Amino acid sequence: METKSGTLEITILSAEDLRIDNRPVKKNAFVVVSIDAFNSKTTKIDREGGSYPSWNDKLVMEMPVQTRFITLQVKYCKGSSSGGEKVVGVARIPVTDFVGGYSPETCLQHLSYRLRDPKGLKNGIINVCLRLKESLHDCSSQAAAAAGSIGLGIPIDGRRDFGVVTGIPICSGYPSNALFR
Question: Which ranges carry the C2 domain (predicted)?
């Protein structure tokens, strides 16, 4: 059986207000983007950005048509004396945020997501741009139907399919922390 897929182009731009144990991250942050257990890529390490790192790394990945979420894990490398990596925060991007809806699938989307630390507490924001380089052909209705079948989503504009509604605030004059709950 052949599985259809599309090509996802995701640019990891930056993050804001990253903390470990309620202290600002000092350096060495990076992001792991996962589509599934076998398909992940990593950005370069930002050695100077501290709790406001910037990567501007473009990653190109194959995305199967049945994909429901893309997972972003912000991590940092501990110093060479202690070794290892520590998870700063995680965001899960529903595919329905950028496939289907009012924009063409191949349109570039600029999105921001709240990060949650391993305990589930709010821990910063990640900013990304993403688009499908090739359309998934009817993926929007399949993804919406899949979301509805697992109890996610609400009816939108009288449609019979279900979609996940996501509001992305775009305004100026407010501190970025005030935009996210």
Answer: 1-108
For position 75, which CATH number holds? 2.60.40.150
Residues in the chain: 181
In a 13 Å sphere around the CA of 68, the CA atoms on its Cβ side amount to 12
Q: Residue 88 is part of which domain span?
A: 5-135
Burial class (CB in 10 A: 0-12, 13-18, 19+), 61: middle
pTM of the model: 0.71
Which residues, other chains included, contact 123 with Cβ-Cβ below 8 Å and sequence gap of 6+?
17, 18, 19, 88, 89, 115, 116, 117
Please write the tens of the pLDDT for every residue from 109-131. Answer: 899 999 999 999 999 999 999 99
pLDDT for 138-161, tens place per residue? 444 444 444 444 444 445 455 555
Structural domain count of the chain? 1
